[in-house]
Structure formats: C-alpha cells, structure tokens
Amino acid sequence: MKGVMVKLTIEEKTYSCQPGETVLDALLREHVNISYACKKGTCHSCMVRSADTLPPEAAQAGLKNTLKKQNHFLACLCRPEQDMIIKLPDQSEFYTEGTVVVNEMLNRNTLLLVIAFEDAFEFSAGQFVNLQRADGLTRSYSIANTPQESNTLEFHIRRLTGGRFSEWLHDEITVGDTIAVSEPRGHCFYLPERSEQGLLLVGTGTGLAPLAGILTDALAQGHSGPIYLFHGSREFDDLYRIDELRQLARQHQNFHYIPCLSGKHVPEGFTHGRVNEVALASFTDLKDWRVFLCGHPEMVNQMKKMTFLKGASMKDIYADAFFVTPV
Ligand SMILES: Cc1cc2nc3c(=O)[nH]c(=O)nc-3n(C[C@H](O)[C@H](O)[C@H](O)COP(=O)(O)OP(=O)(O)OC[C@H]3O[C@@H](n4cnc5c(N)ncnc54)[C@H](O)[C@@H]3O)c2cc1C
Question: Is the pTM of this model over 0.85?
Fold first, then answer.
C-alpha cells in the first residue's frame, strides 16, 4: 500500500495512521469520538483542523478559502504523509440550534420536518445541511423550501428500516424539540441567469426535497423557459405532493410534472417506468438545458453521464447523490 505510517495527536493522545489509511478511518479504528457521515468529502461533517502542518491539498477539496487558510481539512479525504497535531472542532462554531415546529407524514415513509431558528438562516434553495443528534450522530438532509419563507428549514426524511438517524427522527423527535443544524452546503441550486433556458429536474424518493426548493425558487424568480420535473418511485404510496405539483403545473404553463412509477401497479395519470429512463426518452437533445439530479446515487450517476451524452454541458449539470453512510 502507498504512503507511510504517521502519528496523529489529539489532546495529547497519540494514534497511529496506517499507510494509505485516511485520518477518519484511523480515528474511528482508535474509537475517537469524531462526527462523520458520507465519508466521501460531500457532507463536511468530519472537518477538523491541523494545529501544526499544512494539510494535504486533496483533503481541503471544496472548503471555503477562509477555512483552508485556518488549516481546516476533511478527515475522510486526508491520507497524511507526516505526523499531525489535530484539533477537533468546537461544534458550536459550525452548528446552530433550531426548534422543530412541524412534524407530520407526507406519505407512509416520508416525514415532513420543519425547523425554525431565532435568526435568519441564509441558504440557497436546493442546498443541504447536516443535522446532528446530541450524541454526535450526524446525517445530511436537503432543504426543501426557499429562503423567502421566514426563518425555517423544511426537510423530507425517508425512513430507512434500521437506519439510526432516520428512525430516530421518525420515532422520537417531536414538536418543540431542539436539534443542531450545520451551515448550508452543496452547489445544487438555481441561479437566476439565462431565464429562458430549459430546466430538467429528475429525482427519486426524497430527491424531491431539493428539487421542490429549486422549482419554487425558479418560478418565484420568473424563470420563463420550460421546466420539467420527473419524480419517481416504485410504488404509488411512495410518491408525495402529487396534488400540489399538479396544481402548480396548472398555474404555470411552462412547468410540467411527470410522476413515474416503476412497479407493476400504475394508476391513470402516472407514467410507467424508471424515472431516469422516462426522462431521457422524453428528450432528443438536451443542448443548452440545465439539469438537476437528486436522490438515489445510482440514478444520479447514471443520469449525469446520460444527460451529458444527450448534449447537456457538464457545467449545467447539478447533482446531489443521497449517499448513505457506510457501516
Ligand atoms: C447530500 C445528501 C443529501 C441527502 N438528503 C436527504 C434527504 O433530503 N432526505 C432523506 O431522507 N435522505 C437524505 N440523504 C440521506 C441521509 O443523509 C441518510 O443517509 C439517510 O437518512 C439514512 O441515514 P440513517 O442513519 O437512517 O441510516 P444508517 O444508520 O446510516 O444506515 C445506512 C445503512 O443502511 C443500509 N442501506 C442502505 N440503503 C438501504 C436501503 N435502501 N434499504 C435498506 N438498507 C439500506 C446500508 O447498509 C447503509 O450502510 C442525503 C444524503 C446526502 C449525502
């Protein structure tokens, strides 16, 4: 294996990091209590700081310049080549406390959670945040509303059977409870430029959450080009917001909503097929289209390639793959 064995020092205790191992894996192996979720450099929940050496450049990918200058880095991306003294973050620096104000079901598996803040929470519709439980367990969830809607964030949370965080949110969190919320992250959001451009939005399951925010934002900002939203799941009972989206399509001539079902039972008014296949079959050419892909990682990765091959430019393809945390 490439690399060298190095020493990691945290609060005067020293741990070994094996050749080729990431700082995060080394610290987890040594049972250090460090917050993490995606292990892919997306969620930033394992961000720590080097107190002595410059972190490797690759471990700072996607961080703001101010954080880079302070030697912050992502433990999941860091394969150190020299000993490091590491400071774990003071969570209050990056997390704000919010209060749950709405907690109700959108369908049999999906929870609508609305969290309110005392002060304005700045974000772009479509971004995601990390939610953190008191014991440090952290997961990423996409924001489903727009910043215009006062000091609240809306989330759509799918219950994953046996999932530690989603089951906790579904079964235990109630109105009035507080929860720690990180700064907003991610680049999958609408920018009010080229308003005549076509927008293609494709999502599976709770991939609708960021797409709903992007759609509301685009319509509110007067986007004049065609907007197509393809939302898919296997069963009818796993789709949601169907009536509201149909109503929106009646109100806005340029907005088209295509709910797709890949299972056997397909009621009238729904399209049969996998959402990615239905969406791709609906266009011969995606040149000059802006594409937003959210939800199941396999769908997202496949559609990135396919929409590019159909003519969309890479810089116009925005995506959030909902990676689950590897166990
Ligand atoms: C950028 C981003 C945005 C996200 N936004 C949302 C969102 O808006 N809404 C949302 O609901 N989720 C979202 N997620 C996913 C979310 O972060 C969690 O991964 C998810 O809620 C599961 O966490 P958990 O703790 O309940 O499950 P965990 O306890 O972490 O369990 C995950 C484990 O379950 C197993 N598993 C994986 N897939 C399945 C499956 N389909 N069925 C059964 N078992 C499985 C795997 O072994 C996996 O390791 C997002 C993820 C990312 C990275």
Answer: yes
